[in-house]
Description:
This protein is an alpha+beta fold.
Amino acid sequence: MDELIEEVQAEALPTEERAEEAPELEAPLFAAQTVLNAERQLEASKAVSPKLPRLMSIFLIVFAAAAAGVLLWLYFTRGDSKNLIMAIIVLPLIGYMVYSRLVMPKKAMLRWEAKLLNNYGCTELHLLTEFYDRALAQTLQEDGDLTTEGYSAISELKETEHLFLLRHTAQQWFFVEKSGFTVGTADEFRAFITERIGG
Length: 199
């Protein structure tokens, strides 16, 4: 009976008094603001893309350039027009490979910006990432979308010049700007997250 009276009295408390009794939310151990724009997206893409295709691309460009050089040398020293024809075929291929390597990533970022502009009306996103003892919470400030995840779901940490990248799935990464910490520092965070990755 006493318990029932206490419950009724608690319900009858003014809103201000009940708010004072509510437990406070846990303060984050680390918090960081991240501005995600095309430049940061390109930086992250380079860091997380597999190295083998990039090395193969460089190798193919060097190999094709060497082959074109040999063909031109043979044409000028022996006068064989077949070598000139082969060199003329190889040179545009080299040009296309160099173009793909230098220009295509920038075009991909322009498409990424256009998609943001279409979806959010801006060309950069603002993320607030808060790190607690057992989980992180990242809020996309443009629409208030909140993503929470335990550290057991984070499988890898990569670093670029400006970013910490936390792998969640094969295609999903959490971006954290090194200069954006409002609670804690980048160096302290590195030690913190390294201990918690994978659980």
